[in-house]
Amino acid sequence: MMRQGIPGTRAGMTVVAIAAAIVGVSACKKQDAGGDQGAAPAAAAPPKPVAWKTLKLDKLGIEVKAPGNAEVLDRGGGDAPNVTLSSNECAVMIDTVTDLHASSFAAAKSSIQHDANTFKKFTREEKTAKGWYLTFEAQDMIEKKPLYGLEIRTTIGAKQFECSYNDSDATKMACVAKICESMQKPGA
């Protein structure tokens, strides 16, 4: 039995196709009314640098430096809370480490290498006094384009935290690294 109006179903796809056609016709009408269509589009202004701020993650008992427009999304976790920080510049996931996370440096590397995305190579493999720092390249399993990843494990107080993210945009990884490297006790 087919459900009506659910994206991904035949009815949902029909609705999406009709909406796309309406948007396309509207865009054409606006362009037709615009006059000289041979004019070059205006050059986009370079993006303004975003100010960074200290962001306290009270549920985790830590703080990080993050872009000023970053939002904190609670991913639950009960006694082991997890959050995602999302901004226009990048996103990161910060987890309180549990038994479900890799228990060693070797296990973390193996987990990355055996992910559903096709692993290519580690670009940084560093065991640290409080955990590890891994960066890697892979290939997206669906879109078959490059994927860049980072995973930092550290101990703050009596808890371990893991900060990570994968993105197809290599330029966003500097932002991810900056946030993850800044994890610390509040006020430290």
Question: What brief labels describe this structure?
Answer:
9 strands, two-stranded antiparallel ribbon, alpha+beta, 188 residues
Across the major sheet, the strand order is 3-4-5-9-8-7-6
Biggest beta sheet summary: 7 strands, antiparallel
Secondary structure class reads alpha+beta
Number of E-state strands: 9
Q: Low-confidence stretches at least 5 residues in length (pLDDT < 50)?
A: 1-33
Shape assignment: globular
> What is the terminal separation in angstroms?
59 Å
- What number is the mean pLDDT? 83
The helix content is: 10-25%
Radius of gyration: 22 Å
Oligomer: single chain
Q: What letter string, H or E per element, gives the SSE order?
A: HEEEEEHEEEEH
Strand content: 35-45%
**Number of DSSP helices?**
3
